[in-house]
Specification:
Layout: E1 2-10, E2 24-27, E3 30-32, E4 38-46, E5 49-54, E6 60-62, E7 65-67, E8 70-76, E9 84-92
Parallel strand pairs: 1-9
Antiparallel strand pairs: 1-3, 2-4, 4-8, 5-7, 5-9, 6-8
């Protein structure tokens, strides 16, 4: 299995040229797991509020939202075959 992360900063309403955009980074940006399943912690660094979503319903991502810096735990169940999944993080200024 392979995991990939996508980040999308969203500045929200433009308040002028000096308005600061939302920023978000995650670590690690990808990880591999075996067919037995695993649990992985992802560190989130952001200057705004953020959400996370996964394209696979059996992969558990907790919490699905936060504010500022934090961590997300990803629980991947055991599976019968290799597969890929993606978790997307979005950030927006408060």
């Amino acid at each position: 299995m392979l995991f990939g992360v996508g980040c999308t900063p969203d500045g929200g309403d433009e308040a002028g040229a000096d308005a600061e955009m939302a920023k978000i980074t995650v670590s690690p940006e990808s990880f591999a797991t075996d067919l037995e399943g695993t649990e992985q912690v992802i560190t989130v660094t952001s200057n705004g509020v953020w959400t996370a979503s996964c394209d696979q319903t059996d992969v558990v991502v907790e919490p699905l939202q936060g504010s500022g810096n934090g961590s997300v735990t990803v629980t991947v169940p055991a599976v019968q075959a290799d597969r890929n999944f993606k978790i997307v993080f979005n950030a927006q200024k408060q």
